[in-house]
Write a structure and sequence with these properties.
308 residues, alpha/beta, Rossmann fold, Alpha-Beta Plaits, 11 helices, MeTrfase_RsmB-F_NOP2_dom, MeTrfase_RsmB-F_NOP2_cat, RNA methyltransferase activity
């Protein structure tokens, strides 16, 4: 894979084991499936996958990497919603958010529903998930996935995420803010991800991300938990966005991102001339050479009181 020199020069100073990072990007990304326990018990579903060669994902008991040549989209078990093809790193934000049964949860940019359906499993199809997406064209695929996987606790909305803070203040126990981003972390899966890559696009996206995060934080109850995540490497879309929220809200507290078996790197506290909130070391950067995944960024934020 030929990566732009500007991309390489930009990130070499901040990515540990940079040579291993590049090597990992050039390795094919194997398909990962998540077992859907809304449709059956784990062992019951596994018994139906007799021709699969599966490698367990160490930090999630319901996730498996497929080692042999299985085209999951053509399989009956996929059609029936028993399994869901989802990149392993994409499963981490819902696990860090850890929604509980009977809670009220917002997924502010939900389509196509990978994380929404995962959260429905974690909540055992109870409580309420508001699955919002501002793009009307993405609503139908979202609904189709929710239906195929048997979710019963999800309401779909088509609103600008930036407005939800005004519409539903202090309403949710937990909020997932998995924002639109520059997709830098997806190059293993999609080699075209960097075709339109530019620093100006990163800055444009960071403005939207800040607006979404501020709005999402307003929807959170006091004592509630929010997870902010992207599949990009850019500090402007990651640490800078979270730092923007922390510096304006004294009741926003970063908590450590930890998952047994998952290798993470700490968030950055500076980038070029920018300085970020010192607590950003508690955020997690996930690189492909560490867990054989895409790149991801995850921050966990708790709301301490009711000022905002």
């Amino acid at each position: 894979m030929q990566l732009p020199d500007k991309f390489l020069n930009r990130y070499k100073p901040i990515i540990p084991d940079f040579d291993q990072f590049i090597e990992a990007l050039n390795r094919p990304l194997k398909t990962v499936i998540r077992l859907n326990t809304l449709k059956g018990e784990k062992e019951e579903i596994l018994s139906l996958l007799f021709d699969y060669q599966l490698e367990p994902i160490p930090w999630y008991p319901l996730a498996y990497r497929i080692k042999n040549d299985i085209h999951i989209g053509n399989r009956l078990e996929h059609f029936l919603g028993l399994v869901y093809a989802q990149e392993a790193a994409s499963m981490i934000p819902p696990l860090i958010l850890d929604p509980k049964p009977q809670e009220k949860v917002l997924d502010i940019a939900a389509a196509p529903g990978s994380k929404t359906t995962q959260m429905a499993c974690l909540m055992k199809n109870t409580g309420l998930i508001v699955a919002n997406d501002s793009n009307r064209k993405r609503i139908q695929p979202l609904i189709a996935n929710l239906d195929r996987l048997g979710t019963l606790n999800v309401v779909v909305t088509n609103k600008k995420g930036e407005r939800l803070g005004e519409l539903m203040p202090k309403f949710f126990d937990r909020v997932l803010v998995d924002v639109p981003c520059s997709l830098e972390g997806m190059v293993r899966k999609n080699t075209d991800a960097l075709i339109r890559w530019s620093e100006s696009n990163i800055i444009r996206l960071s403005m939207l991300q800040k607006a979404l995060l501020v709005s999402a934080f307003r929807t959170l109850k006091p004592g509630g938990v929010l997870v902010y995540s992207t599949c990009t490497i850019a500090p402007e879309e990651n640490e800078a966005v979270v730092s923007f929220l922390l510096e304006r809200n004294e009741n926003a507290q970063l908590e450590p991102v930890k998952l047994p078996g998952l290798i993470t790197r700490p968030g950055l506290t500076q980038w070029h001339r920018s300085r970020f909130h010192p607590d950003l070391v508690k955020a997690a950067r996930i690189y492909p050479q560490d867990n054989d995944t895409e790149s991801f960024f995850i921050a966990k934020i708790k709301k301490l009181n009711s000022n905002v």
